[in-house]
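User: My instructor asked us to take a sequence, write out its structure as tokens, and then describe one feature of it. I'm not sure where to start. Here is the sequence I was given:
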Amino acid sequence: MSGYPSAAAIARSVRAGERSAVSVVTEALRAMEGAGRDLRAATVILAERALAQAARVDALIAEGRDPGPLAGVPFGVKDLFDVAGLPTTAGAAMLLGAPPAARDAEAVARLEAAGAVLVATLNMDAFAYGFATINAHYGTTRNPHDPDRIAGGSSGGSAAAVAAGIVPLSLGSDTNGSIRVPSALCGIYGLKPTHGCLLMQGVYPFVDSFDDIGPFARSVADLRLAWETLGGSAPPATGQRVARLGGWFAENVSDALAAGIDGVAQHLGGIDTIQLPRVDAARSAAFLMTAAEGGALHLPELRTRPMEYDPAVRDRLIAGAMLPATAYLEAQRFRAWFREQVARIFERYDVLIAPAAGVPAPRIHDPMIPVNGERVPARAHLGLYTQPISFIGLPVVSVPLFRPGELPLGLQLIGRPHGEQALFDLAARLEADGVIGAASPASSLRYAAQA
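Assistant: Let's start with the prediction itself. The structure tokens for your sequence are:
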């Protein structure tokens, strides 16, 4: 498993006085300036703020007071979380001159109230519209397991920073798979919670119908700790009836990933294979709603300064803004039907297993993936298996198959609404058995300096 210290272990050592928060944070800042820059994971490094927060944690410990369960744990946030004193750019150069945020996003404030220390904002696809973290201003985020490959997106910087061991925790957002896809490609854990269960205050929006925030980590325990600190709660799990998704979710999957899913099923003693109805239509409806809501959100700026947008994002937003209302309403009607059909499946099962991304991370110079015998752009199509799930707001824990020395592959553990505990419980069981787990990148890795 990962050789990097966990968030829980760091907090224990700081609270016990074995290490100072300042020393931990200083190391993280040094790593962020080095690998974080080389991987194009970092956008703004917050050295002065971070060291001041770390000193406050150390002062509380010196006074005999409890700084919180994340004492001294460095973390980063996707560049769409408000950070007091900085413009919230959402990865877009056109917002660099925006007024600075007056206060931190609620999620940032909650982590720091628990003793964690924000060290950097992290790279993303502009306005969160993409699955690759190919950013025209900040560069393309590189995958720590192979810097010639993408990290996935749109929360690619958040995933890469955790996978590389720069920070043990980070925050991202997930609309159509923007936590789950980079988690899979970078070989770490990520949580897309039940839609609406974590506060979005101070997070730059994209698609209100699907937007959620969630943490990245290298262990199930750290992921659960971060979720609870952010305010996540769910009733205790009542069972672990597990099935795997076939049909759509078994197509366009690499041989290695198919074998990995078979291995998980066998480890669980053999599980049912079921199919969700009309998944192709669910993904199409998710695409339509994303385009329509994203286009409507940006329409005022598209009318006044369209040429300032990243061209790859601008054209998709314009197309979305031009969609007829009748198409959007039809997509909403289909979503209600699809949600009802899936709810019936969860009367028989507690967790559904599916791919998170069907293939390993594509190469930066050729960011394409195979779908139905054709090569298609990864930036738009890596959400093949994630979009139909967030379309109806289900919680998902993205978990890495344990593949030391190999390119990462990841699975989705999908639950019913507010079924996070069953997902954490199953993930912890599989992790303890060595079936899943985050493997550290090869120690000989040298991060490339070119984006």
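For the description part of your assignment, you could build on this observation: Confidence is low (pLDDT under 50) at residues 443-451. Try explaining in your own words what that tells you about the chain.
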